[in-house]
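User: Hi! I have a protein structure encoded as tokens and I'd like to know what sequence might fold into it. I'm fairly new to this, so please keep things simple.
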């Protein structure tokens, strides 16, 4: 029995049993099914309290009657895998047969893509990152990128067609501020001439602009003017504003400088993307989409869903939708952020004809995306209904843990470097890699450091704020990435020992090696020899691991429905923890007989495969040894 919709099947059977036992029909979807707590026998639990009013009996008696009905002749063909039941107060715990669990194991072993859903035909465009081209990526971008990339992989694993895209906010006054400072103090330097990474190089001029503006605005501050207004009086701001006007007028000289500096930034960003292991199918530029956005606004004016005011500005009254009046074009005709988002949405639909558009953007933009959906609906765009804002919380750090070059934000490159360094120090202190050469050791440090960073961030529900503690994230114990990576490596070590020791007549080692070579992976042990029959019941630690393996496909679907890689991360931790308990309680390599050894090696192999597949969705690599 390998039905992935087991919970649904049990719901339907219990609903029919209620009608047979008590003469009243109930909706199968209302039958509450959960996984049985570890302290009780069984794998699935049904809540029977709602049926007491129908049975007119105690909860225990109601559960007993339903259990007997489900095990009776009428359900035998439908539920051949049901082997027993027990009742605890108002809960009916259902026990599944060992043969069913061995089928689950065999199915998982034979399928390297176990857990992945079938193709749904749904096309999803997922936007993440979205940086400005005037400063380096920081810790906030790191959460965005890791969450965005992982969510895309999760949706793909659930069976959807997913396209990962980026949007660059590459125009506007902030960009021109860096350009003005470069013209003022850059002295024709380049990233190559200074040895500074491109995005950091350009970002230094954004910092320089603020420093110069602070110096130049002092006379206005002395007169009591507020700082923001005082800075607009400065020569450096006037220069930036002039660059903006000339850019809008397509001035060749200004456009050349803009293109050159943005090119440096893109080169730097790409290095950070590569270091974090994230990628994009397509980049969109605000400079390419804001004019299309203006066209859409004019279309809205023409059809009467937006209004042009006497000063020339265009606004949308959204109060009927519980929102405010939204400015779409300023009186001078210049666009807003929402304007370019309208254009980008239109261009993406032309590119992908998506069913859903997922925007991975911080929670401070919740209102913005409500407005975007309403505006597109007013314009009659059918893709408006598919907009989903994957809103996430901020990332905080314990004070004094890390500081960026500017001293105000945590730089993404600094963060990656520090995580790798902490992994290096922690691993060397443990003293277990003496046989690694320098290249292997550095690869391990990077795998552990990035695994710690990604897991710590992704294990938290996206909507919650994170207090990121680098030292805690790198620990080998507890709910951390390195703990799961270590569990995987531990299994791999055991499987290598099993291969080396396996007798030729067992037929495991040769077939496992052949399978590994064919699939390009070492831990999906699709052995030619079938699992041998057991002369004993499955033991509780074996069942505990198999129960989690059986749940994995449902975890993928549920996590994808919730846009939550955190659910996959915490499943991986639970599986790693449960496997370690199995390993500590039961002998594997020195099992009592060959059938026990075969079974436990199979459980170990499929655990490793499932951990690797789950971590792959999170963008976390697994070490073969550590």
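Assistant: Happy to help. Inverse folding works backwards from shape to sequence: for each of the 626 positions I chose a residue that suits the local structure. Here it is:
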């Amino acid at each position: 029995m390998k039905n992935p919709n087991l919970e649904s099947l049990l719901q339907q059977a219990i609903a029919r049993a209620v009608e047979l036992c008590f003469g009243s029909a109930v909706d199968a979807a209302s039958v509450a099914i959960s996984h049985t707590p570890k302290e009780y026998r069984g794998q699935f639990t049904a809540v029977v309290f709602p049926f007491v009013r129908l049975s007119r009996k105690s909860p225990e008696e109601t559960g007993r009657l339903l259990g007997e009905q489900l095990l009776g002749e009428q359900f035998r063909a439908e539920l051949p895998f049901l082997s027993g039941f027990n009742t605890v107060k108002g809960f009916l715990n259902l026990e599944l047969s060992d043969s069913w669990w061995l089928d689950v194991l065999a199915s998982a072993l034979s399928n390297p893509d176990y857990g992945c859903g079938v193709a749904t035909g749904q096309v999803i465009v997922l936007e993440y990152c979205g940086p400005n081209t005037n400063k380096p990526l920081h810790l906030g971008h790191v959460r965005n990128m890791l969450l965005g990339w992982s969510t895309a992989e999760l949706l793909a694993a659930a069976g959807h067609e997913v396209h990962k895209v980026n949007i660059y906010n590459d125009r506007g006054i902030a960009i021109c501020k860096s350009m003005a400072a470069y013209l003022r103090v850059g002295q024709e330097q380049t990233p190559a001439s200074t040895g500074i990474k491109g995005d950091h190089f350009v970002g230094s001029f954004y910092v320089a602009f603020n420093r110069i503006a602070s110096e130049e605005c002092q006379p206005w501050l002395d007169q009591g003017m507020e700082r923001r207004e005082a800075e607009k009086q400065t020569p450096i701001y006037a220069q930036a504003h002039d660059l903006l006007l000339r850019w809008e007028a397509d001035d060749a000289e200004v456009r050349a400088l803009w293109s050159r500096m943005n090119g440096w930034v893109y080169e730097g960003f790409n290095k950070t993307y590569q270091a974090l292991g994230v990628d994009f199918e397509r980049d969109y530029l605000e400079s390419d989409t804001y004019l299309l956005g203006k066209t859409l606004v004019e279309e809205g004016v023409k059809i009467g869903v937006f209004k042009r005011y006497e000063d020339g500005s265009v606004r949308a009254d959204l109060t009927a939708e519980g929102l405010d009046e939204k400015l779409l074009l300023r009186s001078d005709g210049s666009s807003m952020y929402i304007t370019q988002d309208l254009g980008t949405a239109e261009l993406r639909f032309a590119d992908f004809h998506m069913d859903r558009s997922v925007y991975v953007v911080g929670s401070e933009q919740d209102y913005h995306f409500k407005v975007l959906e309403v505006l597109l609906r007013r314009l009659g765009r059918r893709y408006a209904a598919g907009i989903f804002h994957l809103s996430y919380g901020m990332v905080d750090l314990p004070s004094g843990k890390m500081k960026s070059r500017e001293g105000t934000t945590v730089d993404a490159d600094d963060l990656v470097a520090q995580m790798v360094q902490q992994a290096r120090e922690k691993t060397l202190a443990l003293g277990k890699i003496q046989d690694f050469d320098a290249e292997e050791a550095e690869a391990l440090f990077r795998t552990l450091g990035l695994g710690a960073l990604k897991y710590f961030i992704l294990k938290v529900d996206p909507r919650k704020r994170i207090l990121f503690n680098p030292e805690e994230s790198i620990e080998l114990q507890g709910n951390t990435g390195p703990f799961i990576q270590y569990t995987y490596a531990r299994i791999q070590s055991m499987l290598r020992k099993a291969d080396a020791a396996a007798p030729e007549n067992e037929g495991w080692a040769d077939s496992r090696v052949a399978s590994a070579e064919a699939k390009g992976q070492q831990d999906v042990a699709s052995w030619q020899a079938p699992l041998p029959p057991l002369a004993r019941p499955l033991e509780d630690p074996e069942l505990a691991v198999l129960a989690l393996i059986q749940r994995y496909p449902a975890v993928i679907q549920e996590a994808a429905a919730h846009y939550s890689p955190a659910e996959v991360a915490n499943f991986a931790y639970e599986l790693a923890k449960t496997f370690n308990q199995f390993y500590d309680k039961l002998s594997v390599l020195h099992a009592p007989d060959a059938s026990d050894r075969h079974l436990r090696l199979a459980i170990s192999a499929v655990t490793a495969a499932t951990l690797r597949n789950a971590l792959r969705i999170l963008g976390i690599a697994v070490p073969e040894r550590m």
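A useful reference point when you look it over: The chain has 24 helices and 14 strands. Feel free to ask if any position seems puzzling.
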